[in-house]
Amino acid sequence: KAINDTKATYQVNKVSWQGDPCVPSNYMWDGLNCSYGKLSRIISLNGYTGTLKLSKNRHFTSTEVARITDNFRTVIGEGGFGKVYFGRLDNGTQVAVKMLSRSSKQGYKEFHAEAQLLMVVHHRNLVSLIGYCEEFENMALIYEFMSNGNARQHLSAHNPNVLSWSQRLQIAVDAAQGLEYLHNGCKPPIIHRDLKTPNILLNENMQAKICDFGLSRAFVREQDSYISTCPAGTPGYLDPEFHILGHSSQKSDIYSFGIVLFELITGHPAIIRSPEGNMHILHWVTPFVERGDIQSIVDPRLNDQFNISSVQKAVEIAMACVPTNAVERADMNRVLSELKESLTLEISSGRSQRMGN
């Protein structure tokens, strides 16, 4: 219905048009600037720098939200905004419904920012926004449902299904592709500002997609940074330069990605907790890496089922992401390219295995 309404409004007569903002190019949406490489993608919308109008075609009423969640019956998550509920649309599509709690620490501004961004930024490795509700105090974002939870859950020592090394690398490649798109495929570039394993969701095919864009910012110039008096992000993933300079940039995302990659390699969370005290994952891995003892930091649950050259390259990539000086960090083009090489090494070795085997 929404596509038919849009066709009628814009007088699009081509039967093949299915709602893509960029395709066919003759019917690109007003105000858009799209690139047409292997995949068409939006590179700008009316000079977007953080303020967009929400699409009326994707609005849900509060009554509809209550119905699709079966009166908010099943909670599948909870974050800074509030609770996330499982839902099902009238056509049977499974969705995740994020409700804004009145006591939310993040509030309307970040909630609205996430909706604004995901209405116009689309990529196979970014979680898709299906719609939103904005009625009085009832606010909700409706997303595609990611049935396999998040990467952190799969890395937990309490999860009996152990991710193989090839699966971990594929998750890293997927997340890197999503982040590379935000940094280089969007004009102006976008920084996520809260990249972490709980914000990397997995669908039924174990494809990874980045979520939670409430803290994201777009900039007119690539070299711009976001000045703030309070940290944005999660302890363990925060750019150490933020505490000195008070700003976030693309390099802040790259630092966070390096921490994510070390989590995938080691299985440990960003902050390792023990009776002796807490330790940052970097402080734990660095002495081993400096000695060349890569084997000792690899998740023992992998049972040596990996190509050591592949792991070595992944460790080198992670280290290239996390220098204290942001200028010394790799960019996402390099990170993505080398991660793909690492994955190729693992696959060619014939050691990849299915989860749980």
- Biggest beta sheet attributes: 5 strands, antiparallel
Q: Give the spatial strand order of the biggest sheet.
A: 3-4-5-7-6
Which architecture of the largest domain per CATH?
A: Orthogonal Bundle
What is the highest CATH level, the class of the largest domain?
Mainly Alpha
CATH topology name of the largest domain, in short, is Transferase(Phosphotransferase), domain 1
Q: Structural class of the helix and strand makeup? A: alpha+beta
Protein described:
Helix content is 34%, strand content 18%. With 357 residues, it is α+β, with helices and mostly antiparallel strands. The protein has two domains: 47-144, Phosphorylase Kinase, domain 1, CATH 3.30.200; 151-349, Transferase(Phosphotransferase) domain 1 (Transferase(Phosphotransferase), domain 1, Orthogonal Bundle). It has a five-stranded antiparallel beta sheet with strand order 3-4-5-7-6, with helices on both faces. It is globular. Mean pLDDT is 82; it is low at 13-18, 29-33, 35-57, 220-231 and 352-357. One of its GO terms (cellular component) is membrane.
List keywords for this structure.
about 350 residues; alpha+beta; Phosphorylase Kinase, domain 1; Transferase(Phosphotransferase), domain 1; 5-stranded antiparallel β-sheet; 15 strands; globular
Question: What topology does this entry show?
Answer:
Layout: H1 2-10, E1 32-36, E2 40-45, H2 62-68, E3 75-78, E4 83-88, E5 94-99, H3 107-120, E6 129-135, E7 138-144, H4 151-155, H5 165-185, E8 190-191, E9 200-202, E10 208-210, E11 217-218, E12 226-227, H6 242-245, E13 247-248, H7 250-266, E14 271-274, E15 277-280, H8 281-291, H9 308-321, H10 332-349
Antiparallel strand pairs: 1-2, 3-4, 4-5, 5-7, 6-7, 8-11, 9-10, 12-13, 14-15
Helix pairs in contact: 5-7, 5-10, 7-9, 9-10
